[in-house]
DNA sequence: GTCTATACGTGGATAGAC
DNA sequence: GTCTATCCACGTATAGAC
């Protein structure tokens, strides 16, 4: 198939940006269209309804998730480092769309839960594979979710130094537990 | 002052419930009024505008926060246990209102951030006082935030067993770190 | 494929009766 | 203190021109 029209991608991006920055309430068709640089009618040509727009975003998230998990598994510094660092940083397209979907899941599109659960499960599994410790993997996964949550509430951001300490804490704990119950 | 009318409290409770379960978009004056068992006009007598309603909720949260932090500090099993257990459980009035406020903070009422930040800071401090370890306190605080976040997304809930493991993990880590760098 | 114009429903808020 | 009736603005969606 020929490359999909750029307008489609621009609309999805604009939609995600508005969802994350100012919430579902402000993500009106008009606001999205304006930010994407098209008209309301133009937007509705690509996405015939608001539900279709949300579906489009979720589909996009599925695509991005697979790529992100792969990147996490092959990250040089390891999965823990990769996950925690990207969670505190909302710049990437994947993080943006993930957060947008979590907004949707809290509102009128509970279908979004499914996609979010899949992502959550995929990277908890990757963490477990690296750490060999399901409980610690779960703990790291929760911290990641907490970082996402705080980042979007706009709460005081964890600076890089704080993140480094957290990552070191996990490494230290992983090692300590390998000595006691890990290899059993 | 005489006890405030029961209607006021009922309206705030209904508002919080709708915010948490179906998001800001569905939290219309009409929906809130209906759930609270009053009319739109009746609601608007107590809260003259939607902003006033949100302000009322935030004020209520401030009151509840002080009480919750006090409970956390004097909890028999300790602050870590108390915080993680209450984070996974959305039944209490405090948790409901906290989550409702976090919905508001993501949307049109960034003022909510302030109140949420205060709560966050208060219990991170309580954790640090108990653990004597700022980094670990931060880690637990993030896990708590992650639990909140997942609980409302409606993701697979951490069962009690999983929670117990997490709490044990924190206790174990705290002890291990006291041996190395904690008492320096 | 993208735009303008328009119809329709709904949400927020006011006025005034009870 | 609570209700009903009503007004206005806005958001979604359709129709049809270009």
TrEMBL record, chains A, B:
Coiled-coil parts of chain:
none
What superkingdom heads the lineage? Answer: Bacteria
Q: Which InterPro entries match?
A: Homeodomain-like_sf (IPR009057), HTH-type_TetR-like_transc_reg (IPR050109), HTH_TetR (IPR001647), TetR_CgmR_C (IPR041479)
Q: Which Pfam families match?
A: TetR_C_28, TetR_N
Under the heading SUPFAM superfamilies, the entry gives: Homeodomain-like
User: What keywords would UniProt list here?
Assistant: DNA-binding, Transcription, Transcription regulation
According to the entry, every stretch annotated as the HTH tetR-type domain falls at 5-65
Q: Which residues bind DNA?
A: 28-47
Q: Protein name, please?
A: TetR family transcriptional regulator
What is the originating organism of this protein? Isoptericola luteus
């Amino acid at each position: 198939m020929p490359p999909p029209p750029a307008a489609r991608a621009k609309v999805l991006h604009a939609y995600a940006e508005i969802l994350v920055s100012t919430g579902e309430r402000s993500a009106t068709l008009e606001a999205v269209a304006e930010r994407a640089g098209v008209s309301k009618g133009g937007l509705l040509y690509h996405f015939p309804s608001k539900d279709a727009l949300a579906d489009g975003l979720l589909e996009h998230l599925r695509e991005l998730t697979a790529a992100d998990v792969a990147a996490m598994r092959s990250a040089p510094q390891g999965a823990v480092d990769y996950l925690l660092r990207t969670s505190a940083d909302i710049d990437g397209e994947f993080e943006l769309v993930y957060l947008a979907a979590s907004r949707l899941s809290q509102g009128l599109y509970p279908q979004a839960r499914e996609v979010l659960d899949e992502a959550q499960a995929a990277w908890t599994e990757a963490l477990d594979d690296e750490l060999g410790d399901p409980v610690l993997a779960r703990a790291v996964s929760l911290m990641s979710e907490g970082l996402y949550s705080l980042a979007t509430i706009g709460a005081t951001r964890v600076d890089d130094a704080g993140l480094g300490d957290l990552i070191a804490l996990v490494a230290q704990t992983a090692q300590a537990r390998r000595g006691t119950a890990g290899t059993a």
